[in-house]
Specification:
The structure is a single chain. The radius of gyration is 15 Å and the shape is elongated. 50% of the residues lie in helices and 0% in strands.
Length: 66
């Protein structure tokens, strides 16, 4: 009997924003001391403000200061 294939994992917008911002920090595009403006990040990533704010909160675990 065939087995059903597992459903693909959904990726939350917050997680996408977190990954993209973290990648830019890691590769030096966002420099130390640079202010992260959620309106600018919203326009750059083309996602709503709430996932940006959630991603920033996640990044406050040591990569950025609030």
């Amino acid at each position: 009997m065939p087995q059903p294939s597992p459903e693909p994992q959904r990726q939350l917008i917050r997680d996408v924003a977190y990954s993209r911002i973290r990648d830019e920090i890691d590769n030096g595009q966002l420099e130390p001391g640079e202010k992260l403006n959620d309106a600018d990040l919203t326009a750059w990533l083309q996602v709503p403000r709430t996932p940006i704010r959630e991603a920033i909160a996640m990044l406050a675990d040591g990569l950025i200061e609030m």
